[in-house]
Amino acid sequence: MNLRKYLKVYKKFLHTSLASELEYKTNILIDLITAILSLVGSIFLLSIFFQNNGYIGGWKFEQALIIQAIYTILNGITNTWFNPNLTEIVKHIREGTLDFVLLKPIDSQFFISLKKINPSGFLEIMLGFLLLSFCIRINQINLNLSFLTLSFITISCSICILYSLWFFISTTTIWFVKTWNAIEVLRSFLYIGRFPLNSFSFSLRIFFSVFIPIAFITTIPSEVFLGLSVVWKILLEVIVATVFLITSRKFWLFALKFYSSASS
Amino acid sequence: MVQNIIDVKNLSKSFDISLKEPGLKGTIKHFFRRQTKSLKVIKDISFEIKQGEIVGFLGANGAGKTTILKMLCGLIYPSEGSILVSGYLPFRRKENFLKNITLIMGQKQQLIWDLPPIESFYLNASIYDLDKFEAKKRIKKLSEMLEIDEELFIPVRKLSLGQRMKSELLAALIHEPNILFLDEPTLGLDINAQRNLREFLQKYNKETNATICLTSHYMKDITSLCKRVICVHEGAISYDGKLELLLKKLSPVKEILIVCRSEEDAIKLENSGFTVKNKIKNEITIKIENNSITSSLKTILNNFDIVDLFINEPPIDEVIGKILIKKDYDI
Questions:
Q1: Are B98 and A9 within 8 A, CB to CB?
Q2: Which residues from B are below 8 Å from A5, CB to CB?
Q3: Strands (E), chain A
Q4: What is the pTM of this model?
Q5: What is the ipTM of this complex?
């Protein structure tokens, strides 16, 4: 893979999708307001849960805010990259425009996963980081190299898991043509990621760890921030992320053999 | 000797299609238990195409023309048989193969809708690993050939269909491909835009010696661009050869309208043994076989008092229409 070429193409992707989005100023403004209101609403909801009891699943409100911050960052990444690109896969397959992607001398997964960006998602990422830095201060977290490395690893793994799950569902469009509902179900599960895993019953904890690993996405990075994490959990997240990423890649290449293109 | 650039042997393609009975009962049954049937859409076809040839694929809707094109460019896996395009197995979609081909579909677009076409051109240039200077040079050359200038800087959504198609062509040709697959490129275009596009393709073929495989329902596209046609009927090849020969076979006679000096001359001509289609006063229309047209005209001009005459070719659409419904042509 020619890295220089891919960087050059990605720069072009950024340029063209930013230019496309900036054509519609009002839409961007509405998206920005929605991002702010959504964060305020989520914190308000979280505070209601903690109003009567200071703890949920052994987590204090200040600690649970870290999960909210990580969720906001991940949701921002979802809205910036995954949502505009991965939902397009369904459209590409239904309308047959995937033909153009497959005939380009560039990796098709790279092309369809990164071609577009939604700039309003950047604000959400920024707000997430602001909330995270506020949480670091109120939870008196000591910032050192190992902490930063582990945070980076766990958050990167979370992004990989989330991407792979989404990409996997979108790929099934090649057979099922319409999979909007499955993506909506995934997004609904993601909302669950705003709460600590310990706040759910044992059976749900198993479900969200084994079947749909939403728990890995927010809880494990948050535990790293609070110094509550154990090595095996981090290792497990790395393994899960790697397996998911490789599987989604192989699944895409396998699915393409069944692509029949849309009729003209 | 000119090399074969496309080599297809015993190619077949089957698709699984789901069957649904009509009505609510059928819909519910279809939802819970889907019945599928394997449908062979391409049946054991073989052909070769040489470098620089322009070949038209003719056939009715659903005959399999687009499926053939999509297998040739590597979008669809063949079920049986072999395809070699420029020495590559297309469905492997190797980088060097993809840099050598392009697919243009009249009903689908790759340009970024909200931005001027120039942005899509530079994006494609980076995908094809062209530097900015080279990309600029090629855009200039192709835009001159396509006669587009200001349109390059107007958002795609504001361009007319003809301008958009020209821009699509430019986007698809920026990497100077050697093989062009065109699936109904003139679909929906007005007569002038169709003519411009045809002229461009002729020029491009002449200048670059590129091979062009074309499907179109506009017969003018086929007759003005393709010397060779491959007729596809229900997934099988019913004719592969020169268009001229096919037209002669399908339309062996020409109609000649003769304006005689007087009605008496017309009556004399009517009774002289030619096949008469109709006669109105001093104007008479006769049918003459293609192979005897020169001698017959000589006889008429020498023996009758003729004021004017017109040779009418049979309408090409009518002639080609026969191809779409016939299974085999023994020429």
A1: no
A2: 126, 129
A3: 55-56, 59-60
A4: 0.79
A5: 0.78
